[in-house]
Amino acid sequence: DLAQRAHQQALHFGAHFVHTLAATELRTEGSMRVVTLANGSEIRSRAVVLATGVDYRRLGIAELERLVGAGVFYGAATAEARALAGEDAFVVGAGNSAGQAALHLARYAAKVVMLVRGDSLAESMSDYLIHQIHVNSKIQVRLDTELVGGVGTHRLEALVLNDRLSSVTTTEPASALFVLIGAEPRTAWLQGVICRDENGFLLSCRDLAPAYEPLMSEWVLRRPPYPGETSMPGVFAIGDVRHGSVKRVASAAGEGSIAIRFVHQYLAETETKDGVEQHPVRGATIESQSPELCSIFA
Q1: 105/147 Cα distance (integer angstroms)
Q2: What is the distance, to the nearest Å, from the Cα of residue 215 to the centroid of all Cα atoms in its chain?
Q3: What is the C-alpha separation between 91 and 93, in angstroms, rounded?
Q4: For 82, which DSSP code?
């Protein structure tokens, strides 16, 4: 309903939507930012907001994939947790996001079982989360355990687990499964164009540290990047695709509204005169960006 309302409001203000065509290239031409689509057509604008999201890594288990949304969930457990009162929930993953999901689920579920393929959480999870999990009596961590199958006709009923040390396979009742095994940002088409972190997420604002500055030599404005602004002036990243984002719908919507504010500011400061973009000074120092300003997207 929220997405539909946003769509209608955008149409009301004159926005145009292009469906079923992927973006394949982004480049600058003077004051314009040019997005090339899969069919070869181009969209030109003075500013771009990137909200391409991520693709969650999949389990690849057919009987579980068909139950997505019916007891099997990719991503965090915020909305579904309350419905699990008195039930057993399973979490697949060993990173911080999996640990945070397990702690949140433990507030409602009777028991939370974390399934970890490796022999330790220490290599992939922060110490403070490991401690909180170990002292929580409702959370059980199963190391060296692999999820290999599932049972359920219309909704998840059980999981098939394999002990990697003993090779013993068991089937255990399960009301819900939350999969947090990482995500791939949809940014491959921006490689070499916009600064990304080691996992492909788009860097913006104060995250554009010296270690990521090969592309920043082309920065042409007298100021450092605005909140959400990437290494290409006038191009903003919001939502899951942005490095350090919260990975929540509400947060992404908030980032979008803030980004638009700075889009207007960018447009106002780069107005053209006789077709020449007004960028009088090159080479801003990224470290000088106001922490208070950037904390909006931290």
Answers
A1: 19
A2: 23
A3: 6
A4: G
Tens-place pLDDT, residues 90-121: 999 999 889 999 999 999 999 999 999 999 99
Structure tokens at 90: 């399973």
All structural domains of the chain with their residue ranges: 47-54+185-297, 58-179
- Token code pair at residue 47: 């500013």
Same CATH fold, 58-179 and 47-54+185-297? yes
Which residues, including other chains, have CB under 8 Å from residue 264's CB and lie 6 or more apart?
A: none
For 47-54+185-297, give the CATH class.
alpha beta
119-123 contacts, C-beta under 8 A, 24 or more apart: 119/143, 119/144, 121/94, 123/94
- State pTM to two decimals: 0.70
Amino acid at 212: Y
Give the pLDDT confidence score for residue 120 in this predicted structure. 93
For 58-179, CATH gives 3.50.50.60
Query: What are the angstrom distances between the C-alpha of 142 and each of 63, 100, 121, 134, 221?
Result: 22, 16, 10, 12, 52
